[in-house]
């Protein structure tokens, strides 16, 4: 397929690009396939960055408190890994705030790319074979891999970039250089490609030889992210002989448009204000040209936040019909290097949406998340990573690998904060027990990596369904909730590796064990823990009956999903419900309603009646306590259709696993099982896992 430019100005973005016009309608099927491939490629590129940045962020050594509104039972405790802070003092904390701000905006970019795709009638995939294998292992990462998906093979770049690997890693000079390659503006990226390799990149739109059967896996490498979006825009604005653009022909009014950032529930809601009030986050217009203006506004937001690519943004506008140009929110010129104010988050909104709390449950004066995101929101992602490199050069960064290399280990003192809790809970492990568990997990890399892989797989699997139904529940808590499992990898002395994938679990006819000892298949077994491949980390996306975690998050009537049609099937997703630790401390530790409806019944941990109605955190952290009171419904999971057996009350401060065990024993008693098993001592993994926040 000959689709590369051959001019001397290869890869040069024209200041005023010329739209493609007079396109013969006979090309429409091929063009439709091409733009669908472009839409998916944009999703792949944005999704690709999220595990990379998460791994680096969680590698920074330190500890954090787990604080929530009205909750004080974790006072005096700390867990491995950093969190955002309103007053970053150490280089580690400053670097964490910077990478966190970028990480969150990459999730915004993923949303924008997915909404653009659905506006054309294309269902986005978050498990594309360009990134993952059939077992949900991420084939795009590895110590010997050198290709940024859809963009470039790093071996074609100049030193030092031609020696980099595309792999999950800690905050090091090499890893930050990789991030700079991903985020650098188009002109800089072109200059960093070896002259002899330029001809491999920068395809010309429309792509020659493209057929209706082709997908994103048939796309050529674009050379830079800037060129990818340039080609994308050329297809979006391509005009046919009938005077319509390709986008007009594909536009779907009323398409599924999901929004986790700019929705505003008003005073009293959990998210009262839009985070980015100056930019489009969804395609809401019913007129195709006005919708196209929103799409371009979203693309400009992506490139401006990432690369500070002001000149490219100004150029892309010229591809639009005049009516669409006039409707755009952002007008030129954009400032190169910095993020235009319309694409920056609002500190006021972030403070309202993501309040911080003290260890006694009172609200803190300043939001840590708002501080981190606002302080870095005016700088491009490239600039943020350049600043982190400066911190590395100054010698102040300490990662978990360097910390362990210095002979350090976990102690109770490291996991104890001030002030002490005057009435510490007696039903959770103490700091010394957690420290011992963390030290004992050293050498368990295979287990920990599978846990991380499963947690992320739960996110991507959930996202596939999220853009299919407007009222579906977004697994956003799980997206960043996977972070504490990646933190656990680093904190136990391992480096996260999500490339292997998960071994599918065949249907056993009954629900497999959800957590330690909760084995409905072979009672009274008290197995060490549930099968790793069925670990969960988000409500509403549990794959099987009986595999829910804390359960408090899910009313038995639904809320996060509808009942599946089978008790169990092939399970490869890890899911948990939580307000993410990395995006603000929760008002409810399992992500459920605050407070629960008095008459509502909730799925008991490990006893959810069907798929998608489970709760959070499987395996259940031994430190997980209920932040509210309510009533759990117990089901008999031995019948073909789970039947209600009665209810179990739970109170503030009750251990989640204790309630899970009560539900389990009630089900065994109903089945006539004798003798009944004894509750197992918490496993090392359950002791080491932090409670959900």
Please, could you describe this protein's structure?
- The chain has 693 residues and is mostly helical.
- Among the domains are: 25-262 and 359-392, Ferritin, core subunit, four-helix bundle (Ferritin), CATH 1.20.1260.10; 503-677, no CATH class.
- The protein is 34% helix and 4% strand.
- The chain is built from 18 helices and 7 strands.
- It has helices spanning 28-58, 91-119, 173-183, 186-191, 225-236, 246-250, 288-307, 310-317, 322-327, 347-353, 368-377, 381-393, 400-405, 431-440, 445-466, 476-491, 656-671, 684-688; strands spanning 63-64, 79-80, 147-148, 152-153, 602-603, 630-636, 643-650.
- The strands form 3 sheets. A 3-stranded mixed β-sheet has the order 5-6-7, covered by helices on one side. Strands 1-2 form a two-stranded antiparallel sheet.
- Helix 2 packs across helix 11 and helix 7 (288-307) packs antiparallel against helix 8.
- The longest helix has 31 residues, at 28-58.
- It is globular and about 80 Å long.
Can you give the helix content as a percent range?
A: 25-40%
**The CATH architecture of the domain at 25-262 and 359-392:** Up-down Bundle
The total of beta strands comes to: 7
- Low-pLDDT parts are 1-8, 565-596
Brief synopsis:
Among the domains are: 25-262 and 359-392, Ferritin (Up-down Bundle), CATH 1.20.1260.10; 503-677, no CATH class. The protein is 34% helix and 4% strand.
């Amino acid at each position: 397929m000959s689709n590369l430019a051959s001019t001397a100005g290869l890869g040069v973005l024209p200041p005023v690009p010329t739209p493609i016009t007079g396109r013969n309608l006979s090309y429409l099927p091929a063009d439709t396939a091409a733009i669908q491939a472009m839409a998916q490629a944009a999703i792949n590129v944005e999704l690709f960055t999220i595990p990379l940045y998460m791994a680096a962020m969680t590698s920074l050594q330190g500890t954090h408190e787990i604080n929530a509104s009205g909750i004080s039972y974790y006072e005096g405790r700390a867990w491995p890994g950093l969190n955002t802070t309103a007053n970053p003092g150490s280089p580690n904390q400053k670097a964490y705030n910077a990478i966190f701000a970028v990480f969150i905006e990459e999730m915004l970019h993923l949303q924008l790319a997915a909404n653009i795709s659905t506006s054309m009638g294309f269902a986005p995939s978050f498990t594309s074979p360009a990134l993952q294998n059939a077992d949900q292992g991420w084939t795009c990462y590895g110590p010997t891999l050198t290709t940024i998906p859809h963009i470039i093979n790093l071996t074609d770049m100049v030193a030092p970039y031609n020696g980099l690997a595309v792999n999950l890693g800690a905050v090091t000079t090499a890893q930050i250089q990789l991030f700079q390659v991903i985020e650098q503006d188009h002109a800089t990226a072109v200059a960093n490609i070896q002259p002899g390799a330029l001809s491999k990149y920068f395809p010309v739109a429309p792509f020659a030889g493209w057929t209706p059967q082709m997908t994103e896996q048939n796309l050529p490498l674009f050379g830079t992210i800037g060129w990818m979006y340039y080609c994308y825009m050329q297809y979006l604005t391509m005009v046919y002989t009938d005077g319509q653009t390709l986008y007009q022909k594909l536009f779907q009014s009323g398409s599924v448009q999901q929004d986790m950032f700019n929705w505003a529930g008003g005073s009293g809601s959990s998210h009262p204000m839009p985070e980015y009030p100056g930019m489009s986050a969804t395609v809401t217009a019913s007129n195709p040209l006005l919708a196209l203006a929103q799409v371009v506004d979203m693309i400009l937001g992506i490139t401006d936040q990432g690369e500070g690519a002001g000149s490219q943004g100004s150029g892309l506008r010229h591809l639009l019909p005049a009516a669409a140009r006039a409707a755009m929110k952002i007008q030129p010129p954009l400032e190169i290097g910095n993020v235009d104010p319309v694409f920056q988050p609002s500190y006021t909104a972030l403070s309202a949406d993501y309040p911080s709390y003290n260890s006694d449950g009172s609200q803190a004066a300043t939001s840590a998340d708002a501080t981190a995101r606002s302080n870095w929101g005016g700088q491009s992602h490239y600039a943020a990573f350049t600043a982190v490199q400066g911190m590395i050069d100054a010698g102040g960064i300490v990662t978990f690998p360097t910390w362990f290399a210095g002979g350090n280990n976990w102690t109770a003192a490291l996991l104890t904060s001030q002030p002490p809790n005057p009435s510490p809970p007696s039903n959770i492990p103490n700091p010394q027990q957690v420290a011992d568990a963390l030290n004992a997990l050293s050498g368990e890399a295979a287990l920990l990596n599978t846990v991380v892989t499963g947690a992320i797989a739960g996110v991507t699997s959930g996202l596939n369904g999220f853009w299919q139904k407007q009222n579906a529940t977004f697994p956003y808590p799980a997206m960043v909730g996977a972070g504490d499992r990646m933190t656990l990898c680093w904190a136990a002395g391992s480096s996260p590796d999500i490339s292997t994938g998960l071994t599918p679990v065949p249907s056993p006819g009954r629900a497999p064990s959800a957590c330690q000892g909760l084995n409905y298949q072979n009672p009274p077994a008290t197995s060490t823990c549930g099968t790793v491949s069925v670990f969960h980390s988000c409500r509403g996306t549990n794959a099987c009956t009986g595999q829910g975690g804390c359960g408090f998050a899910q009313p038995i009537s639904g809320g996060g999903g509808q009942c599946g049609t089978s008790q169990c099937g092939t399970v490869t997703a890890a899911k948990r419900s939580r307000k993410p630790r990395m995006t603000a401390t929760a008002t409810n530790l399992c992500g459920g309603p605050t407070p629960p409806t008095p008459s509502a019944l909730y799925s008991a941990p490990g006893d959810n009646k069907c798929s998608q109605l489970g709760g959070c955190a499987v395996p259940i952290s031994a430190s997980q306590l209920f932040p509210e009171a309510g009533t759990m419904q117990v089901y008999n999971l031995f019948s073909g259709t789970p039947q209600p057996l009665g209810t179990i009350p739970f109170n503030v401060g009750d251990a989640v696993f204790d309630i899970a065990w009560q539900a389990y024993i009630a089900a065994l008693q109903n089945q006539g099982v004798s003798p009944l098993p004894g509750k197992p001592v918490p496993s090392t993994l359950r002791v080491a896992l932090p409670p959900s926040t």
